[in-house]
Amino acid sequence: MEDKNYTLLPEAAWSLLVSWYGLSVGSRSIVKNVEEHGVHKKLRVEVYLIELKMCVHPNSINIKTYSFSRGDLISDIVTVMKQQFKISDTTECRIWERDFTGKYDLLTDFQQTVSDAGIHGGQMLMLEKKNPDETWPRDKTK
């Protein structure tokens, strides 16, 4: 509960506190986003991030999990996935989401937010690297 278990501060106030007192060793700030919620687009602080499963095609057994904000962009997820799976920043990649039926759908708008893309906690995202011969592996297996 807000003000009992945690207190929200504007970024400017947090920055002042950190400049005055610093952070404890090993600690970091926890940034929370304000998101539009519901039909009437009420603003709400996103207290809990969503945890997503990630893998790289074709090795869907090597699964990693990572937490994202609903306001993160698909491009942010691709960046994290490249870091987590040690893929070069310059490698061209596509990202797929697995729906509830197990079917993978290509995400094409990298500037779309997690929320706008309809991605929910627990979903699997698969990164696909482009082959040097200029073909996409999943195009061959469809």
Automatic annotation (TrEMBL):
Boundaries of every Ubiquitin-like domain copy: 52-138
Alphabetized Gene3D superfamilies for the sequence: DUSP-like (3.30.2230.10), Phosphatidylinositol 3-kinase Catalytic Subunit, Chain A, domain 1 (3.10.20.90)
InterPro entries: DUSP-like_sf, Ub_USP-typ
One Pfam family cited in the UniProt record for this chain: Ubiquitin_3
Listed name of the protein: Ubiquitin-like domain-containing protein
Protein source organism: Amphimedon queenslandica (Sponge)
Higher taxonomy: Eukaryota, Metazoa, Porifera, Demospongiae, Heteroscleromorpha
